[in-house]
């Protein structure tokens, strides 16, 4: 089956509206992250969301642990430019308060907030305000009877858990639902999302939970999410990183860029270096990688370390440096422009990137 045919899975999910974003029903994947600061600290949260917006975050989630967090949403919403999701656990009153204070979406498992009457109160308000609900199933917190039935976390068990929560909402004629199925086990993530795509027509939020630090999370998430996205599965995504939330956006964008599911993302190509390398390439690569995180252009920049393969490979980039002895050739669209001293490489590359118009 061709990739274009497989992509129809994503295009056929039921669309939901989250603020000004449409999720589902299209071949588009929304990038999201989560604030790492207590939500009641409004100024710090807003500053963090600004940083996320600057690097391409499209949807942000905040924790609602108490009434002060719920009230803070109203103030936060005055300043930010992307939709906000309120993360609720167990307390239906906090869900109601978050919605009343302007949350664009809530993350809540209806089977975990008490009586049917309490769930109905939340659902009624979501209907009135047109607020979707994301049901999140985590392999580490499945219901006791499901865990006992399967003996360990399985894709089938996670789907069974989700079906229970979904039925509660559907019985109340509520269908603005998004689903997520998270595990720290890469293969389990792949298996459960594949099964979910066959079981439900609701949009799916992809993620590997507790993925680790930047390097480990990049690997786990690229394997799991890349596999699913390439198969046409997934409408939103978050890469969980034990670090700054901005790092999550960088990895998301690189995964989507590699699958041609996003535009206006800069691509950095750099050789791994070897005994032929004749200048100190690593500091230049490190600084240019950081700089290019905020470049919203379809541009490929190559930094090559030697004069053997460098010039040939650099010709395929929009802008490139092919290194020699303490200097390098500046190459644009395959044409050698001039020699650049090592100490000038970063400045020249930044100038060329800023001036690039495609």
From TrEMBL:
Amino-acid positions noted as binding [4Fe-4S] cluster in the UniProt annotation, renumbered to this chain = 271, 274, 306, 313
Q: Name one GO biological process term.
A: terpenoid biosynthetic process
Give this protein's Gene Ontology molecular function annotations. Answer: 4 iron, 4 sulfur cluster binding; 4-hydroxy-3-methylbut-2-en-1-yl diphosphate synthase activity (ferredoxin); 4-hydroxy-3-methylbut-2-enyl-diphosphate synthase activity (flavodoxin); iron ion binding
Top-level taxon: Bacteria
Pfam families the UniProt entry points to:
GcpE, GcpE_C
| This protein's UniProt keywords | 4Fe-4S, Iron, Iron-sulfur, Isoprene biosynthesis, Metal-binding, Oxidoreductase
Residue ranges of every copy of the IspG TIM-barrel domain listed in the record? 13-252
Report the co-factor binding details.
Binds 1 [4Fe-4S] cluster.
As recorded in UniProt, its EC number(s) are 1.17.7.3
Domain IspG C-terminal stretches = 267-354
What reaction does this enzyme carry out catalytically?
Answer: (2E)-4-hydroxy-3-methylbut-2-enyl diphosphate + oxidized [flavodoxin] + H2O + 2 H(+) = 2-C-methyl-D-erythritol 2,4-cyclic diphosphate + reduced [flavodoxin]
Where does this protein have coiled-coil stretches? none
Matching entries from InterPro entries are given as: Dihydropteroate_synth-like_sf, IspG_bac, IspG_bac-typ, IspG_C, IspG_TIM, NO2/SO3_Rdtase_4Fe4S_sf
Q: Which cofactor does it need?
A: [4Fe-4S] cluster
Per the record, the pathway is:
Isoprenoid biosynthesis; isopentenyl diphosphate biosynthesis via DXP pathway; isopentenyl diphosphate from 1-deoxy-D-xylulose 5-phosphate: step 5/6
Q: Per the similarity annotation, which family is this?
A: Belongs to the IspG family.
**Function per UniProt:** Converts 2C-methyl-D-erythritol 2,4-cyclodiphosphate (ME-2,4cPP) into 1-hydroxy-2-methyl-2-(E)-butenyl 4-diphosphate.
The protein in question is named 4-hydroxy-3-methylbut-2-en-1-yl diphosphate synthase (flavodoxin)
Q: Which species is listed as the source?
A: Breznakia blatticola
Gene behind the chain: ispG
């Amino acid at each position: 089956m061709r990739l274009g045919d497989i992509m129809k899975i994503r295009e056929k999910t039921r669309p939901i509206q989250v603020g000004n974003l449409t999720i589902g029903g299209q071949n588009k994947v929304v990038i999201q992250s989560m604030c790492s600061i207590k939500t009641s600290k409004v100024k710090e949260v807003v500053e963090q969301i600004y940083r996320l917006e600057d690097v391409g975050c499209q949807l942000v989630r905040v924790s609602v642990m108490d009434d002060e967090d719920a009230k803070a949403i109203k103030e936060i919403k005055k300043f930010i430019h992307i939709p906000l999701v309120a993360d609720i656990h167990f307390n239906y009153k906090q869900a109601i308060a978050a919605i009343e204070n302007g949350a664009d979406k809530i993350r809540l498992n209806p089977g975990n907030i008490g009586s049917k009457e309490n769930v109905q109160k939340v659902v009624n308000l979501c209907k009135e305000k047109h607020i979707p609900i994301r049901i999140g199933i985590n392999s580490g917190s499945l219901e006791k009877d499901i865990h006992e039935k399967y003996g360990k976390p399985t894709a089938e068990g996670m789907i069974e858990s989700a079906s229970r929560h979904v039925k509660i909402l559907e019985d109340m004629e509520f269908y603005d639902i998004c689903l997520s199925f998270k595990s720290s086990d890469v293969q389990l993530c792949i298996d459960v999302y594949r099964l979910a795509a066959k079981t439900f027509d609701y949009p799916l939020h992809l993620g590997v939970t507790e993925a680790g630090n930047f390097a480990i999370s990049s690997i786990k998430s690229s394997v799991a999410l890349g596999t699913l996205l390439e198969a046409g599965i997934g409408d939103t995504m978050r890469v969980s990183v034990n670090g700054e939330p901005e790092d999550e956006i960088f990895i998301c964008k690189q995964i989507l860029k590699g699958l041609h599911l996003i535009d206006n993302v800069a691509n950095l190509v750099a050789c791994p270096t070897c005994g032929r390398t004749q200048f100190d390439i690593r500091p230049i690569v490190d600084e240019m990688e950081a700089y290019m995180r905020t470049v919203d252009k379809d541009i490929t920049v190559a930094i090559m370390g030697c004069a053997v393969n460098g010039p040939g490979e650099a010709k395929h980039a929009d802008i490139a440096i092919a290194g020699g002895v303490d200097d390098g050739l500046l190459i644009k669209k395959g044409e050698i422009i001039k020699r650049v001293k090592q100490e000038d490489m970063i400045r020249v590359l930044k100038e060329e990137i800023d001036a690039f118009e495609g």
